Amino acid sequence: MQMQNFEKIYAEYFSDVYRYALSLSQNESVAEEITQETFFKALRHIDRFNGNCKLYVWLCQIAKNTYFSYYKN
Q1: What is the pTM of this model?
Q2: Is 16 exposed, middle or buried, given 0-12, 13-18 or 19+ CB atoms closer than 10 A?
Q3: What gap in Å lies between CA 62 and CA 17, rounded to an integer?
Q4: What is the Cα–Cα distance from 65 to 8, expressed in whole angstroms?
Q5: How far apart are CA 43 and CA 1, in angstroms?
Q6: What is the predicted pLDDT for the residue at 71?
Q7: pLDDT per residue over 1-39, tens digit each?
């Protein structure tokens, strides 16, 4: 995937993923960190997105896993 396309994804979904992370964490700074990490992981593993679900759902799944990993440590 080209970086331009990923920038569009970031711009389109950032606020939705942030709101989802905020609903999980109830903490703005944690939500920001989770959201940034979510997009970092998504960029690194975009080749794993196979289109079986909406992109938003895939990003929220990453966010949820990132959130739970964050609190395990």
Answers
A1: 0.89
A2: middle
A3: 10
A4: 23
A5: 9
A6: 82
A7: 566 788 899 999 999 999 999 999 999 999 999 999 999
First to last CA, the chain: 32
Give the count of beta carbons closer than 10 Å to the beta carbon of residue 21: 26
pLDDT digits (tens, 9 = 90+) for 44-62: 998 888 889 999 999 999 9
On whether the CB atoms of residues 35 and 59 are closer than 8 A, the answer is no
Structure tokens that stand for 57 in this block:
């759902």
Angle at which helix 28-44 crosses helix 55-72, to 10 degrees, equals: 120
User: Which run of H or of E encompasses 23?
Assistant: helix 3-25
Closest alpha carbon to 35 in 12, 1, 62, 58: 62
For tokens 């331009």, what's the residue?
Answer: 4
